[in-house]
Fold this sequence. Notes:
Layout: H1 9-17, H2 21-28, H3 32-40, E1 50-52, E2 61-65, E3 70-74, E4 88-93, E5 96-101, E6 106-110, E7 117-119, E8 130-136, E9 141-147, E10 150-157, E11 164-166, E12 172-178, E13 181-186, E14 191-194, E15 199-201, E16 215-219, E17 225-232, E18 235-242, E19 247-251, E20 257-260, E21 267-270, E22 281-285, E23 290-295, E24 300-306, E25 326-328
Parallel strand pairs: 20-22
Antiparallel strand pairs: 1-2, 1-25, 2-3, 4-5, 5-6, 6-7, 8-9, 9-10, 10-11, 12-13, 13-14, 14-15, 16-17, 17-18, 18-19, 20-21, 22-23, 23-24
Amino acid sequence: xxxxxxxxxxxxxxxxxxxxxxxxxxxxxxxxxxxxxxxxxxxxxxxxxxxxxxxxxxxxxxxxxxxxxxxxxxxxxxxxxxxxxxxxxxxxxxxxxxxxxxxxxxxxxxxxxxxxxxxxxxxxxxxxxxxxxxxxxxxxxxxxxxxxxxxxxxxxxxxxxxxxxxxxxxxxxxxxxxxxxxxxxxxxxxxxxxxxxxxxxxxxxxxxxxxxxxxxxxxxxxxxxxxxxxxxxxxxxxxxxxxxxxxxxxxxxxxxxxxxxxxxxxxxxxxxxxxxxxxxxxxxxxxxxxxxxxxxxxxxxxxxxxxxxxxxxxxxxxxxxxxxxxxxxxxxx
Length: 333
């Protein structure tokens, strides 16, 4: 009988690179030698884009892995209260989920994979539209909170005991840190860079679209900043910030990557290592709660998966809806 515990490290490394993170966690729990090999080697498991569903029980958090088309249930240690009516996820970045309790006016960061939790300063009971991690590393993290009916945003950082308020001209719907500067997008589609001197780019389509039409900012692997604008129920436009002219240019090709957009989080993900992901596509939830892919090149929509996540929604608006899913990229740390 084969001694699986005696597998050579190079063989274990090949196996690890083919495993999704949940399978990797199970793999390293098989025996002591595999666990040590996983910790000592530089091999990392495959990372996939997931959808996080709103929890409705204490069984655990439910995630849907898009490339594999299957669900994962993850029990978060010591966080059972998160799955009651007290806590609600309001954002996700860098492998962390941001939870808000309107009941207690508190907020915390949770890593569903490692189980680590970070308590944030008390923020108050005002309804939160969304929260974002602008950065997350061993030295620092920065969390910002946006409100759907209030201009500006609140911000806190690692080691801070309170939140600072920052004013803006209009209600903000998204914010991102790009090349050391903050960029925001407001309800009119105007993008502004918070730098000296400041600069704003009004949306070319502002006169043709109502307020609250979906708009988000995403940085792609090439280092460019793009703006994703929803044009209708099943259509999107993408604009890239030209570094040379400092102007926005509409494009229909984002290369070998896919975009995953939603109210609470939007991310860009390489498609080349995932045969079940379609490059140059925007993955989104349509009005009928279907996971769909919009092809930028030919302007068509394709059904990916039917999701049971609540009643039909109006996707023209970005106001928080508790039945919405959240895009989540798992991380081991």
